């Protein structure tokens, strides 16, 4: 859908203005780009999921986001060479399409709406990252894990007949890197949420009961604006 409704405003989808390119396939676990080989292209996910991580100077790795079908990543190529310590790894067998900075600049000259759409996309990503940083700074670990699960449901989930939102399997280590904590703490919190009936999971899937999770957070006076916004965007599209 070329125009996505958010808070009464209309946003253009960059994919509507990017030319089609030959697809590339990456096996699960394969590094798409990393510190030794920085991103030189803007990528779009056609199938599968990609994990975007940042490595700090002390070697600590944090997952900044997970990108699913129709999502973009590798935006750093548009601002030139940078030392961000960013890497992209295939969470599944993925199919991608990519464009160089030169190709994008040429396409913007032909279709200026692409420039506007990319600017809007990047501003939204910055605002959502700001929400995550605020969550990490102000909430305790149980609430942070629940907010993360709501975000994953909104970004990666598929509605199920019983009202759950199903997310393809993610390791507790990957979720921990996204939350900014240890695998052991995520396992502890996931077990707690399962006992409360807020989620169920196996090696094949994670089922999240988003309405119940939201209600649980409201009872603890936790803002869920980000998760609601992202979920609403998916419904609009």
Largest sheet: 4 strands, antiparallel
Widest beta sheet: strand line-up: 3-10-5-8
What is the string of helix and strand elements? EEEEEEEEEEHHHEEHHEEHH
Q: What is the CATH C level class of the largest domain, in words?
A: Mainly Beta
The tally of domains stands at 2
Q: Radius of gyration in whole Å, from Cα?
A: 18 Å
Which structural class fits the helix and strand makeup?
Answer: alpha+beta
CATH topology of the largest domain: Jelly Rolls
Share of residues in helices: 40-55%
Q: CATH homologous superfamily of the largest domain?
A: Jelly Rolls
Low-confidence stretches: 1-8, 227-237
Going by CATH, the architecture of the largest domain would be Sandwich
Strand content: 15-25%
Strand runs, count: 14
SSE blueprint:
Layout: E1 3-6, E2 9-12, E3 24-26, E4 31-33, E5 41-47, E6 50-55, E7 61-67, E8 72-73, E9 86-90, E10 94-100, H1 101-110, H2 113-138, H3 141-156, E11 158-159, E12 165-167, H4 172-179, H5 183-195, E13 199-201, E14 206-208, H6 210-219, H7 225-236
Antiparallel strand pairs: 1-2, 3-10, 4-9, 5-8, 5-10, 6-7, 6-9, 11-12, 12-14, 13-14
């Amino acid at each position: 859908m070329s125009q996505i409704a958010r808070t009464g405003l209309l946003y253009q989808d960059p994919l509507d203005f990017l030319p089609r390119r030959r697809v590339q396939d990456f096996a699960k676990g394969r590094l798409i780009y990393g510190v030794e080989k920085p991103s030189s292209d803007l990528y779009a996910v056609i199938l599968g999921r990609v994990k975007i991580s940042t490595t700090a100077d002390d070697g600590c790795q944090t997952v900044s986001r997970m990108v699913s079908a129709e999502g973009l990543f590798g935006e750093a190529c548009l601002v030139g060479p940078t030392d961000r310590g960013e890497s992209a790894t295939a969470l599944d067998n993925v199919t991608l399409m990519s464009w160089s900075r030169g190709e994008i600049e040429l396409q913007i000259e032909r279709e200026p709406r692409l420039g506007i759409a990319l600017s809007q996309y990047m501003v939204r990503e910055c605002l959502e990252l700001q929400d995550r940083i605020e969550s990490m700074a102000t909430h305790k670990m149980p609430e942070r894990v629940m907010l993360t699960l709501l975000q994953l449901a909104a970004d990666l989930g598929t509605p199920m007949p019983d009202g759950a939102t199903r997310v393809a399997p993610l390791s507790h280590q990957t979720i921990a890197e996204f939350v900014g904590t240890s695998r052991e703490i995520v396992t502890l919190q996931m077990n707690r949420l399962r006992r409360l009936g807020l989620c169920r999971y196996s090696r094949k899937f994670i089922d999240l009961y988003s309405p119940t999770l939201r209600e649980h957070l409201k009872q603890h006076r936790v803002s869920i604006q980000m998760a609601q916004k992202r979920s609403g965007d998916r419904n609009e599209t």
